[in-house]
Structure prediction request, 301 residues.
Amino acid sequence: MEDSRLKAFCLIVEMKSFSRAAEAAFVTQSAMSHLIKNLEDELGGKLLNRSGKLVTPTSAGKILYEHAKKILEDYRAMENDVYNVVKRIKGPLYLGASTTVSKYLLPQVLYDFSKNCPEVQINLSVSSTEKIISELHQGGIDIGIVEGNIGDKKIVFKEIARDEIVLITSDNNILTKKKSVTPQDLLHQPYIMPEAGSGMREFIDEFLNMMKIDLQDINVIMTLSDPELIVRLVQSGIGIAFVSKWSIFKTMTDETIRLLKISRKRLYRKIYLIGLNKELSTMAARTFLEFVKGYRFFIPF
Prediction:
């Protein structure tokens, strides 16, 4: 029931670009321009200034933006209140997930949920655990699914899965001939590491500290945010890496990746469903929350 013109206008103001707003709304730039022209014709004044590629609101546009945001919020609240009464699961669902979760756990979850609730529009933000917690506080997302430590006391969390972390190398690394590797072995290897601030990096740093390995002594030759790229570079023989077992599920079949045993104890990190300590406001979010709590995630080899 939202006014498409107001929604388009707010999106352009926030993204400072017609082209980026059109891409985000999955419409053509000409369609977006037509909506704004229609709005300007009705109100009788210019609402947006174009300065090169940058778009900014005029004085009238700033006033409209403040009112439009409130109107759109009222639209969403009205729809949600009605959906709650009639028990209709419809409307937007805003999720945040870490990279590993979004790549390996969520595709099947979202597919199954969408089959059950086809009228829910899912919006997924992929980021670090720290940034997802920030988005929860800012109201940008309803629910987060992350790994790593949750150090925020205002966040409630529930474990929904476990992710085994393994150390991998290429098939021609001399360490593959050993039944298990020692901390001393690890000091002489080149590492490909995930980005600082990520849940995986935090997990690796804690484990190396536990193994009495000084982080200053290891040879980090590359830092990457994409787990699939890390696996491919390990395959090429550039270095070794700690990765999620989910990320090597397919590559293990061609035997170009080998697992290195580093301790008797298997390494696991917990995957959490997180949110604020209050009831979710939409039927879509509450339904997804219960759906994920009961979901059975597949276990890699």
Notes: Residues 177 and 260 are 9 Å apart (CA to CA).
